[in-house]
Write a structure and sequence with these properties.
With 115 residues, the protein is mainly α. Helices cover 95% and strands 0% of the residues. The chain has one domain. The protein contains 2 helices and no strands. The chain crosses the membrane at residues 14-34.
């Protein structure tokens, strides 16, 4: 009989430990997803900001390239200056392409984070 009482006293501590561990697991299960959701929303916001900046840069680069094309068509300029402006135009087109690729990559990241 005394052996049974000692055994039950030992299991009481075990039940307390299991109860406390269960409470901790429940609390972690409640707050951890909320924390991750907030982190993902911050990342999505950052990526959307970057996409908007890239859209603005792409728009500005297209305007600059159109202006360069117009100036090349409308003016009779020396050959070296024409080559320089043509090079500048190609460089702007390359920058625009790079910005577009980066923009598409950011949009894909946003889609992945939202899912």
């Amino acid at each position: 009989m005394q052996y049974l009482n000692n055994f039950l006293t030992g299991t009481e501590n075990l039940f307390k430990l299991l109860f406390i561990n269960g409470i901790v697991i429940i609390l972690i299960g409640l707050f951890y997803p909320l924390q991750k959701r907030d982190e993902l929303q911050i990342k999505i916001s950052d990526f959307n900001f970057e996409v908007n900046l890239l859209n603005n840069e792409i728009y500005n680069l297209k305007i600059q390239s159109e202006n360069l094309k117009d100036s090349l068509k409308n003016k009779l300029i020396p050959r070296e200056e024409a080559k320089l402006r043509n090079f500048s135009l190609k460089q702007k087109a390359h920058e625009t392409t790079n910005k577009t690729i980066l923009q598409e990559h950011r949009k894909e990241q946003i889609k992945i984070l939202e899912n």
